[in-house]
Structure formats: structure tokens, C-alpha cells
Write a structure and sequence with these properties.
Blueprint lengths: L4 H29 L4 E9 L11 H7 L3 E8 L3 E7 L13 H18 L3 E7 L3 E8 L2 H13 L9 H11 L5 E6 L7 H10 L1 E7 L2 H4 L6 E5 L6 E5 L3 H25 L2 E5 L5 H13 L1
């Protein structure tokens, strides 16, 4: 299938913007933030006082006539999975960007950081169910494929089922991975799936929130449409009681979301659909490192 020129142009624009950010800001933070997956043999060297005797190579010691030890180095290669929500609620934004657009920029920043560190990166798109899965690979071509899909892919469904995506990853990933779960988390009852996935993998939740969702604006009488269910309702946003109820409901949902993450041992960061998303991501890297 031929990808339209405007999509390719947008991919290139995202590459320029995010690679500049990765080179100037994220490169060192990413490298120090993510630990390797284990230790691999590096070389032999002569034993010196204080070395762990368990590292002595008795075969080489017998052959050389003096003690040698095995040295090891951290295995740096990481497998990163970008698990991205593509449900209807991501098509909302009260300012310059939709929530889904900002998820694309966050995912691009992470993907370019991964390939700069010679790591593998893969993509999962989910709505009611798994929409698309791209197995992890290295290289710039892989990142371009991921960006093209995030920009061009048309989901079959509009709802959100986070558990479906998490359960799919638990079944398909054989090697330990770092999974960035990027969503507005407008779903419930996914905490059990989250805990099961976190047992084997590192899961990091990236929550996108639009300011209008938790500070409901006074714009008079409007018709609201649920982008996931398609239901519509007429509401009076000038009514203080209505705005207070909406803000209370959002606050309650957010508190439940945070409690679920804490119980699951999952770390998180939150950002809004604007140009400052990278600040939240960088703050997370620094917070996690310390």
C-alpha cells in the first residue's frame, strides 16, 4: 500500500522535531535511566586482592600458573514496547493538539531514544481489542514504520479495553521488556491484567489529560458526544452544579487510576496535549534515575 505524501511529510517533520530533542535532552537521561537485562561475560584479568573468589576461572588459572578471574559487563540492550491507545476518546483536544497527536510525539521521542541506544522497539495499538502489533526490531526504518502506522492507521473500534492489550503482550513477549502504556485511561477493571504483566516486565504508564477534562469550561448550552460510545446529550455548562459534578467525577476516576498503579507497582507520568509533553517525560526520567 502506498503511503500518502502528506503522511510521509508529517513523519519527516516528527523525526526532525523529536530527534533534535533526543540529541539535545534525552540521550543521556535515557541511557542512564534504563538498566541492562543482565550481565554478560567480557574478558579475563589477573586476580587482585579483594576480588570475589567465586569469579576465579580455575581452568585458566591452572593453565597460566597464576589466578585469573572472569569479568562481566552489563548487557545494555533493551526491548521497548510502545502500547498506544487509539480509542475514540483520544480524538479530543481543547487547544492546539488532540490527545492522540501528543501520544504520537511522546512515542516518537521514546522510539528515537531507543534506536540511538541501539535498543529494539515495537508497537501495539489497541482500542476495544488489539488493532495492530509490530514486533520489536532495531533501526531507523522500524521507527519510521511505527510513526507511519500511528499517523495512518484507522482503528476498527472506538472503545477502550486496556486489559485486552496487556493480556496480548503478556502472551506474545517472551523476553523481558519495558512497556510504555500510553493512554488517557478511560477504562476500568484493568488492574489485574496490569499486575500480571508487571510481574515479568517493566510497565510505565503515560497518562494524557486535557485541561478541559478536569476544569470543565463554561460555554453555555452545548451538545456533548461520547467519542467512544457515540451517545449524545444536551448539557448546560453554565450551571455551576453541573461543572462541579463533572470535575468531581474526573477527580474520583483519577484517584482510582493512581491507586491501581500503586497496587500494581507501576510508575507513571502525566502530560497535557501541548508542546510541553517532553518536560513531563524528562522529569520522569530524572525522578526514576534518582
Amino acid at each position: 500500500m502506498t503511503v500518502p505524501a502528506e503522511i510521509l511529510k508529517k513523519v519527516k517533520r516528527i523525526e526532525i522535531d523529536t530527534r533534535k530533542m533526543v540529541n539535545n535532552i534525552f540521550s543521556g537521561e535515557y541511557h542512564t535511566r534504563f538498566k541492562g537485562q543482565g550481565m554478560t561475560f567480557a574478558d579475563f584479568r589477573e586476580y587482585v586482592a579483594g576480588d570475589d573468589v567465586r569469579s576465579i576461572s580455575w581452568t585458566l588459572t591452572a593453565r597460566a600458573g597464576k589466578p585469573f578471574i572472569k569479568t562481566f559487563e552489563e548487557e545494555r540492550e533493551l526491548t521497548m514496547i510502545l502500547a498506544v491507545d487509539v480509542s475514540g476518546s483520544l480524538e479530543f483536544g481543547s487547544k492546539n493538539y488532540f490527545k492522540g497527536e501528543t501520544l504520537t510525539y511522546v512515542a516518537a521521542t521514546l522510539a528515537f531514544s531507543a534506536i540511538k541506544n541501539n535498543d529494539q522497539v515495537g508497537l501495539l495499538l489497541f482500542s476495544n481489542d488489539v488493532e495492530l502489533y509490530i514486533p520489536p526490531k532495531k533501526g531507523r526504518a522500524q521507527v519510521f514504520r511505527i510513526l507511519r502506522e500511528m499517523l495512518y492507521f484507522k482503528p476498527k473500534a472506538t472503545g477502550t479495553n486496556i486489559s485486552a492489550g496487556l493480556d496480548f503482550l503478556r502472551g506474545v513477549l517472551k523476553k523481558r521488556a519495558t512497556i510504555f502504556l500510553l493512554s488517557d485511561f478511560q477504562d476500568k477493571n484493568f488492574d489485574a491484567s496490569l499486575r500480571l504483566l508487571e510481574r515479568k516486565h517493566e510497565v510505565i504508564a503515560g497518562l494524557v489529560q486535557d485541561e478541559a477534562e478536569f476544569v470543565f469550561p463554561d460555554v453555555g448550552l452545548v451538545e456533548l458526544r461520547d467519542s467512544e460510545s457515540g451517545e449524545t446529550m444536551l448539557v448546560d455548562t453554565s450551571n455551576p452544579a453541573f461543572r462541579a459534578e463533572m470535575e468531581s467525577r474526573f477527580k474520583s476516576d483519577f484517584e482510582t487510576f493512581q491507586k491501581n498503579l500503586i497496587r500494581s507497582g507501576v510508575r507513571s507520568f502525566a502530560f497535557q496535549p501541548d508542546d510541553n509533553y517532553h518536560q513531563a517525560l524528562l522529569a520522569f526520567f530524572k525522578r526514576k534515575r534518582t
